[in-house]
Amino acid sequence: MRLWGTIAVLLVAVTACAGDGEPGAGETTGDWEFPEAATATLAPDKAAKLQAALDKIVADQALESGARGVTAAVVGHQWRWSGAAGKDAVGTPLRPTTAMGVASITKTFVAAEIMLLVKAGKVDLDAPLSAYVKHKLTANGATVRQHLSMTSGVPNYLPDDYSRMDQVIKAGPAKHWTPQQALAYDSAPVGAPGTFNYSNPSFQLLGLLIEKVTGKPLATVLRRDLATPAGLKHAAFQDGEKPKPPVAEDTNPVCGPPDGYLPCRAVASLSAANAGLAADAPTVALWGYQLYYGHVIPQELVDQMTPNMGQYGLGTMLFEHQFPPLLPSYGHRGQMPDHTSLLVVGSNVSVAILLADGNKNVDATMTQFLTAVKPLLT
User: Fold this and answer.
1) Could you report the per-residue pLDDT of 322-363, keeping only the tens digit for each?
2) Residue 10: what pLDDT?
3) In sequence order, what are the residues at sequence separation of 6 or more whose Cβ sits closer than 8 angstroms to the Cβ of residue 356?
4) Nearest-angstrom CA–CA distance, 288 and 105
5) Which of 196, 281, 366, 370 sits 20 to 30 Å CA-CA off 355?
6) Contact 107, 315 (CB under 8 A)
């Protein structure tokens, strides 16, 4: 069941790069208009309830759904809120604006940019990716759509692939990696398109597509077409951009001492298109609201990213049953060694949780937090 068909929402379609014939800011598509994200903050007594939920997550850090530190943000059409509790890996207290590596939430940006290029007639979703990017991993004929939907047949990196990359990163954590250098480590055999298989290499290839078609670096394109129109001031597309302080430090043994990137330049650059984003919780929540409610790309493109069935749309996870307080919903998870993130958008609200901890059950943490959020939405 479609999210947009099950909640009483008003939808506005605003393009990130309003071109000829496209609705601009304040214009509508069809008969519905969805309000802009609220600027008003939550009343203090209600805000205290959300802060208490974060405090509980940190107090229960021995639990699978706990964490040594957490930040969270809620953006809706009536109010917005952000908070923090606990510390990062080196003991620094977190603030609501503390940036963390949000890993695979990056994929939602790459997918949105591809959709804009489709709308502009520069990319055909159903053309083979090899028409744009010549590489051994595109030789099986999988389409752009199949790479976006994780059905390309291109496998994810194997554990041994990551181990070999780690050894090289340790020797030069501050070095820049190109996508081609990273993709050279994918040793698993490529299969036939059509079966779901979560694939970071697919999104690295899509990043190459964006750079090929636009003639500009990925970070430049995502900033120009998406982050700036969406009002995202604290998103950093690494390693084209560095995160702005405050930043949650991590203790990734591969990277060594901090170098200004999360977790370090080598890791950030080799995963730029699939996991390179660093941001704070208010930025992630605002992005979810702006994207999935049609404020940065036309609603018809959002509809293609969020199909009716399945576990994965186009650069988007479909949460049909996972979060009972907010059903159905869309978004994405992100996992770094010391940072875990989750964006969930549904029922007129976008919620982001960032944990200053790795290998945590962020779904359980989100469900716990949404239980506190839900009564405040009525």
Assistant:
1) 998 888 899 999 998 889 999 999 988 999 999 999 888 999
2) 23
3) 67, 68, 69, 70, 71, 86, 87, 88, 89, 94, 98, 100, 248, 250, 338, 339
4) 10
5) 196
6) yes
Tell me how far CA of residue 202 lies from CA of 32, 150, 153, 198, 303, in angstroms: 35, 7, 9, 9, 21
Angle between helices 106-119 and 281-292 (to 10 degrees): 30
Q: Are 315 and 116 a contacting pair, CB within 8 Å?
A: no
How far, in Å, CA of 26 to CA of 277, rounded? Answer: 29
User: Mean of the pLDDT values across residues 282-297?
Assistant: 97
Q: What are phi and psi of 74, to 5 degrees?
A: -130, 130
Cα separation, 38 vs 191, whole angstroms? 46
Q: What is the DSSP letter of 314?
A: S
User: Is residue 273 within 8 Å of 206, Cβ to Cβ?
Assistant: yes
Is residue 97 within 8 A of residue 76, CB to CB? The reply is: no
Please, are residues 82 and 281 in contact by the beta-carbon 8 Å criterion? Answer: yes
Instruction: Name the band, by pLDDT with cuts 50, 70 and 90, for residue 3.
Output: very low
* Cβ-Cβ contacts under 8 Å for 265 (sequence gap 6 or more): 173, 174, 175, 176, 238, 239, 259
- In 3D space, the residue among 311, 319, 273, 274 whose CA is nearest the CA of residue 292 turns out to be 319
DSSP string, 223-266: IIIIIHHHT-SSEEETTTSPPPSSB-----TTT-S--SSSS-HH
H-run or E-run covering 179: helix 179-183
One-letter identity of residue 15: T
Tokens of 140: 């099986």
Residue 364 neighbours by CB under 8 Å, 6+ apart: 64, 65
Q: Which of 131, 112, 129 is nearest to 120 (CA)?
A: 112
